[in-house]
Amino acid sequence: MLSIDNRPSFSHTHRFSFGHAAALPTLALNRLLAYAASSIIGLFLPIFLFDFFHRSFQAVLLFYLVDQLLKLPFYVPGAKIFSKIGLKKSMMIGVLGLSVFYFMFFLLGQNTPVSPFILMGIGLVALMFTSTLYWSPFHIDFAEFSSKEKRGRQISALFVLQHIIGVIGPIVSGALIVLYGYSATFALGFFLVLCSLLPLYFLPAKSVQYEFGYWQSFRELFSKRFRPMSISMMAFGAENTIGILVWPIFLYMLFEGDYLNIGFFSAFIIITTLLFQIFIGKETDKVSAKRMLHIGTGLYALGWVWKGLVQTVTGVFAASTFHSFGSIFLQTPMDALTYEQAADAGHYIDEYTVLREMSLNIGRIFIIIFLLVLNIYLPITVSFFVAAAISLVINRLADTVRT
């Protein structure tokens, strides 16, 4: 059951009143500041670990496997916690967890006398709080604060702003690494994450009541009601992990360790797709999101295949540009459908979002284990073809949508 305090209350405030609408840009500002941090660190974190572990891709995979395995048991306890303390406080704790993660890696880059594995362990525990206490409340709030009629455009607007930030982030990060080392990027990320706390203070204090039990939550993942969403999100989590882990390391090897060129390359890809994102957002509100999702998954899968076939910088740039177009066709309608289904879940909106996060996590665990085995026998580029096949499964999200 959803409830909000008197700043204002949903029970007395129309869904599209000014008080209600003001919460969405506030929530978006929090996300954009945190995204600024991740745009600076996200691309280079797998590369940092790749270097730290003496270019062992297996070790990088094991790090992320520990990260995902640590999170899985705590999604339901996390839901019980944010049911008691409220969504706003829960998100604040999650943001603090991310800041601790970045600070631990800042210390790691400083060569402190503390064991690097202790620093990594503390960082991963802190990141577990972020995953279990931030993301579900964020999605609940976004589903509630966004307009059903304009959700595609609202999501697209958020993505456009993220793309603008994403143009600057990799370049800044590459320059900082070249000039000052990795510690400078982690320090900047730490600062930006702390800044993202401020908008959360102005959000209306809303609470939910998570009603599924611990083992019931795992059973519900494959119930008739939630199965299409769960399978789709598992596929998305698996595919997205390849993009987050494998692609940056592939670029690192392609550019022979030139951090600045990696940053510029990533920025150029974002520039080529920025305006296209606005168009897709508008079309999502006009055309069936289900139909657009089917088109997007096909284009996105072809982009992964193309990435797996090229080995030159020019070829990778062309493939990446096409893949980014496919990503927009996929991501915008997928998120619109997800938030629509979450909002339509009504009383079970919190259960829906928690199961979504659990599904993403399970997909990541399975693909990392698969990559650990695959990498023993085949080069990492083979994973791009695996991502192409997996991305087609995301269509399952549309199975619960009436045509």
UniProtKB/TrEMBL annotation:
Main location: membrane
GO cellular component labels: plasma membrane
Molecular function (Gene Ontology), one example: transmembrane transporter activity
InterPro entries on file: MFS, MFS_trans_sf, MFS_Transporters
Bilayer topology: Multi-pass membrane protein
Organism: Candidatus Uhrbacteria bacterium RIFCSPLOWO2_02_FULL_48_18
Keywords: Cell membrane, Membrane, Transmembrane, Transmembrane helix, Transport
Cellular localization per UniProt: Cell membrane
Protein name: Major facilitator superfamily (MFS) profile domain-containing protein
Residues annotated as transmembrane: 32-53, 90-108, 114-136, 157-180, 186-205, 226-250, 262-281, 365-394
Pfam family, one: MFS_1
Top-rank taxon: Bacteria
